[in-house]
Amino acid sequence: MSGGPPKGLPSTGPHSLLDMPHPLAGSSSEEAVGGDSTPSPDLLMARSFGDKDLILPNGGTPAGTSSPASSSSLLNRLQLDDDIDGETRDLFVTVDDPKKHVCTMETYITYRITTKSTRVEFDLPEYSVRRRYQDFDWLRNKLEESQPTHLIPPLPEKFVVKGVVDRFSEEFVETRRKALDKFLKRITDHPVLSFNEHFNVFLTAKDLNAYKKQGMALLTRVGESVKHVTGGYKLRSRPLEFAAIGDYLDTFALKLGTIDRIAQRIIKEEIEYLVELREYGPVYSTWSALEGELAEPLEGVSACIGNCSTALEELTDDMTEDFLPVLREYILYSDSMKGRQDHTCGLTS
């Protein structure tokens, strides 16, 4: 037995994320043969998760770079920075003005999509159309089908727990509007996805349902042809590279989910503590009016409790509005990458 100190157990999961080798990093045998001890950029990126704050991907590479060749390199190039130089952009898209529609069979929300562009692909310099959530979902599915080698930005979750969140409340609708606006802006800033034909139709077509029906008819005919051609085709086993990427993403998503649950529990406890602080402040203030000699220190305690309440409220708002949405988008991006990885594996097979 070794006489060295025992190794500590990881906090969650079978392995620590920092200890996991990046799936695309070179193996030890290859490094021994090549004699190069410099770690790959992908491996450095994986290790940097523990040293730097997580940066939310912003769906797409900068306009001045070429399209990455793999999902891993694409993730490295995704950026959070939305402050792209306005002088270099020729396409602007905004999502605003949500409206509630009550019909006989259903009730839903639509959003106004305003597009301004100088590109030759657009017949007019400005368009304004209305779209509902399922139209955004249709667009994303079309982008995945037509751009199988690109990571498509995620959409906010469609389903909510009934009785817990009112999906027609102003707060929920505004939160979803912001997420849908960010989704379209990420596609708009992408040097490849922004030129997609389906994206153009989504932004300009007055009757999107008619276009969807045409696509469904064509898809049915193509599907029958593909079914006959691929009837006897058998996929090979999954390459080891894709299996390693899948394991890495599963572990990454698991740890993100754990952080999400812990953060929500912290926010809940902060809100409960904030309610108590707001009750204690007036108590000390009233007490000070009854105690002449202790009036000054009691007022000081009351003021201190008020300052703590304000600071705690700001901290809770920051976590709710800034931290949790970013964390959940990381989870959505992880799911998107796993979907892309499975699809790409099928193509390579």
In short:
The protein is mostly helical and 349 residues long. Helices cover 54% and strands 9% of the residues. The two termini are 45 Å apart.
What is the C-alpha radius of gyration, as a whole number of Å?
Answer: 26 Å
Cα shape: elongated
Q: What is the strand content?
A: 5-15%
Give the terminus-to-terminus CA distance. Answer: 45 Å
Q: Biggest sheet: strands side by side, in what order?
A: 1-2-3
Structural class: mainly alpha
Give the biggest beta sheet.
3 strands, antiparallel
Continuous helix count:
9
Query: Which whole number gives the mean pLDDT?
Result: 74
Strand tally is 3
Order of helices and strands: HHHEEEHHHHHH
- Measured as a percent range, the helix fraction is 40-55%
Unreliable stretches (pLDDT < 50, length at least 5) are: 6-14, 27-87
List keywords for this structure.
about 350 residues; three-stranded antiparallel beta sheet; 9 helices; 3 strands; Sorting nexin-30; PX_dom_sf; PX_dom; phosphatidylinositol binding; AH/BAR_dom_sf
Protein described:
The protein has 349 residues and is mostly helical. Helix content is 54%, strand content 9%. The protein contains 9 helices and 3 strands. Strands 1-2-3 form a 3-stranded antiparallel beta sheet. Strand 2 and strand 3 (126-132) form a beta hairpin. Helix 8 packs antiparallel against helix 9. The longest helix is centred in the C-terminal third of the chain and has 54 residues, at 295-348. The protein is elongated and about 80 Å long. The chain starts with 27 loop residues before the first helix and ends with a helix.
